[in-house]
Write a structure and sequence with these properties.
The complex is a heterodimer of chains A (about 240) and B (about 90). Chain A is about 65% helix and about 5% strand. Chain A contains eight helices and two strands. By secondary structure, chain B is mostly helical. Classes of the chains: A mainly alpha (about 240), B mainly alpha (about 90). At the A-B interface, helix 7 and helix 8 of A face helix 3 of B.
């Protein structure tokens, strides 16, 4: 697939520091069992974010030797995060399924860090459909795993309701869930990134202070909202399939 | 005008512009949701946090059709599938 030569069309000068390439650039290629695997910007940024999160986790663990009844300092921050996630899980699912919070807290931290990594000059990994599709695949698996685990045969019967000939429609609507979930996150972050790239390609004297305002909206605000929405929708979809 | 790609590129640009008309629906829907949310907060100020989170969730769901339009427009502009078929 050829890439559209927009650069030439709207006359942006092709200089290394004001590039107009929004696709995830390929930094290297390696061979894995005869199959070429691309090391894109997304892969590198994802590993950087994972390393940062793991180092932060170890840092927190080493600073807090044991938890006290009266929280102080760093313990406050940790308790705030864990407690608000617990409340969110209890709201969206029930207290019985609060153990999903452990998984979703990790997903929340990863997506949030990815979304706001644009502030540090990275190319946000969530602006790549591969990342969002991977996270959504996990949600998709959990939706149907929990459906079969709790509903047993009732899960399969649910596809024949309200009438048996609705089966294809029900399957299509099941397939639409992961697509809408992944495209929502991808489209929001990607759209913000395209607009930021357009703003940075303005003349240099317009690039003083103005991008900061847009960064606050597109990276911080939209990033946080979309993370919360992604996690909340995943929980709601899983809860909908659980037969109680 | 000898290059047939010019026609395809121009039509793709028009198509990308038309695809962004899908932003119309979510705009109306989100405005409606925000208005109803403000109404609900006015009637019941103590339930503010619940109303806000429910409204944001609804807004995000309403936004998805607009996002599909945006993805189509981005595809037409940056990863044009038609230009390779010439």
């Amino acid at each position: 697939m050829k890439v559209f030569p927009l650069k030439k069309l709207i006359g942006i000068v092709d200089s290394p520091d004001s590039g107009f390439d929004i696709s995830s650039r390929i930094l290297g290629r390696i061979d894995v069992a005869g199959q070429e695997v691309w090391i894109t910007q997304t892969v590198v940024t994802t590993w950087v974010i994972m390393a940062a999160l793991i180092i932060f986790a170890f840092f927190v663990r080493s600073r807090i030797k044991y938890f006290t009844d009266e929280p102080k300092g760093l313990q406050n921050v940790v308790e705030l995060g864990v407690e608000s996630m617990y409340k969110l899980v209890c709201n969206c699912m029930t207290e019985k399924y609060a153990y999903f919070g452990k998984w979703f807290f990790g997903i929340f931290c990863f997506i949030l860090t990815s979304n706001i990594s644009g502030l540090l000059g990275f190319r946000a990994p969530t602006a790549d459909l591969a990342t969002t599709a991977a996270v959504t695949a996990a949600t998709f698996f959990m939706i149907h795993f929990m459906g079969i685990k709790t509903g047993k045969l009732g899960y399969f019967k649910g596809y024949l309701e309200p009438l048996p000939f609705m089966l294809p429609l029900n399957i299509v609507s099941e397939m639409a869930t992961p697509i809408s979930l992944s495209f929502r996150l991808f489209g929001n972050i990607m759209g913000g990134m395209v607009i930021m790239t357009l703003i940075y390609s303005l003349p240099r004297w317009l690039n003083f202070g103005i991008p900061a305002v847009f960064h606050v909206y597109f990276d911080l605000f939209a990033g946080v909202i979309q993370t919360v929405v992604f996690v909340m929708l995943s929980m709601t979809f899983i809860k909908d399939k659980i037969a109680d | 005008m000898d290059d047939p790609r010019a026609f395809v590129l121009g039509c793709s640009a028009i198509g990308a512009g038309l695809a962004m008309f899908s932003g119309l629906g979510p705009g109306i829907g989100q405005g409606f949701a925000a208005g109803k949310g403000a109404e609900a907060v006015g009637r019941q100020p103590e339930a503010r946090s619940t109303i806000t989170s429910t409204m944001l969730l609804g807004c995000a769901v309403a936004e998805s059709t607009g996002i599909y339009g945006l993805v189509v427009a981005l595809l037409l502009m940056f990863a044009n599938p038609f230009i390779g078929q010439l």
